[in-house]
Write a structure and sequence with these properties.
By secondary structure, the protein is α/β, with parallel strands linked by helices. The chain contains nine helices and ten strands. It has a single domain, classed as Zn peptidases (Aminopeptidase, 3-Layer(aba) Sandwich), CATH 3.40.630.10. Strands 2-3-5-4-6-10 form a six-stranded mixed sheet, sandwiched between helices. The chain has a two-stranded antiparallel sheet with strand order 1-9. The protein has a two-stranded parallel sheet with strand order 7-8. It is globular, with a radius of gyration of 18 Å. The chain binds zinc ion. Zinc ion (ZN) binds next to loops.
């Protein structure tokens, strides 16, 4: 993923404090005060095992880079599918043709897991499982041509989603949760917005069920790094404000307010874009991006430093508990 508007603003030399995704800075503090359905203090966290999420992150990294057409890519798809099937999910593999970072043809696979109680609104939980072919943000030039390990950028979102799926199989929430693992998200070029998010673009045009609908969507992207900060992403605030409010309030009530900052971030080019714009599913992107950091996403983003060394069990737990608890609330 990449920031949609940040690059432009930085080019203009504006300070990051001026970046407003919605263009309405006066509304910056209002998203947390309306529409929330969780009001009580002292909320109990829904079950989420951060050790398990950490292990799932580690296992993906152990497969090697998960770039298109690589052995690690193939092994990871099979591993995700097997995990989901072992927990009783119906799994659909959606194959599509895309292009890799270098413009070569690549086989993409979206992995979709469902386990649907009848008569309930669907909620779509999303992450991307591929990793980037180039570490083009690496400060060391010789490393920029190498693929990233993607412990945070790729593996962490998948890991939290898998642990949520496992917990759902053990303690059903009563909601119809659908899990989608998008492929070919991270092969884009900075000057070409449509070169990112190929899996979600494909799924939005060809959902696994014709005229698929969901009440809400939640996208997890880079949710495992130590010191992560999740601000209100621009599209999420514009299109899914009630869900955004519930998530950030839940985080605050669980004691994770340092991670979930109630202030504007930036607008991202990420998998929630096609899901919102083409399928009309209001979705929130939980993504580590701090507008006050010089590096925005963090120093490890798209570098050779995106390894298990940056992964924190506490961050995985903060995100996992926040999402799991919100899903059990009245949303
Ligand atoms: Zn990325």
């Amino acid at each position: 993923m990449r920031p949609t508007r940040l690059v432009h603003l930085l080019t203009l030399g504006l300070s990051s404090a001026l970046i407003s995704c919605s263009g309405t800075t006066s509304q910056a503090q209002s998203a947390d005060s309306t529409d929330s359905t969780i009001q009580e203090q002292g909320l109990t966290a829904a079950p989420f095992d951060a050790d398990s999420a950490y292990l799932y992150t580690q296992q993906q990294v152990a497969f090697g880079v998960r770039t298109p057409n690589s052995p690690g890519h193939q092994a990871t798809a099979q591993w995700i599918e097997e995990k989901l099937r072992s927990w009783g999910y119906e799994v659909t593999l959606q194959h599509f043709e895309g292009k890799d970072h270098f413009g070569k043809s690549a086989q993409g696979t979206n992995i979709i897991a469902t386990r649907t109680p009848e008569g309930s609104d669907h909620i779509l939980l999303m992450a991307h499982w591929d990793t980037r072919q180039v570490a083009d943000q690496d400060p060391i030039t010789q490393r920029q041509a190498l693929a990233i390990q993607g412990a945070d950028d790729g593996a962490s979102g998948v890991a939290v989603l898998l642990e949520l799926a496992r917990q759902e199989s053990l303690h059903p929430s009563g909601k119809a949760l659908d899990f989608v693992f998008f492929d070919l998200e991270d092969g884009g070029q900075s000057n070409d917005e449509d070169s990112w998010c190929l899996g979600s673009q494909y799924w939005a045009k060809h959902p696994h069920q014709s005229d698929y609908k969901a009440k809400w969507g939640i996208l997890l992207d880079m949710v495992g790094a130590q010191g992560a900060r999740f601000y209100w992403e621009g599209l999420s605030k514009d299109y899914a404000r009630p869900l955004l409010s519930s998530l950030w309030q839940t985080a605050s009530q669980l004691g994770w307010g340092d991670y979930f900052v109630q202030a504007d971030g930036s607008q991202m080019t990420d998998d929630h874009g096609p899901v919102i714009r083409q399928r009309g599913i209001p979705s929130v992107d939980i993504i580590n991006f701090d507008p006050n950091r010089a590096t925005g996403f963090g120093a490890h983003w798209h570098t050779s430093g995106d390894t298990m060394g940056v992964i924190s069990k506490e961050t995985l737990r903060a995100v996992g508990e926040t999402v799991a608890t919100t899903l059990r609330g009245d949303i």
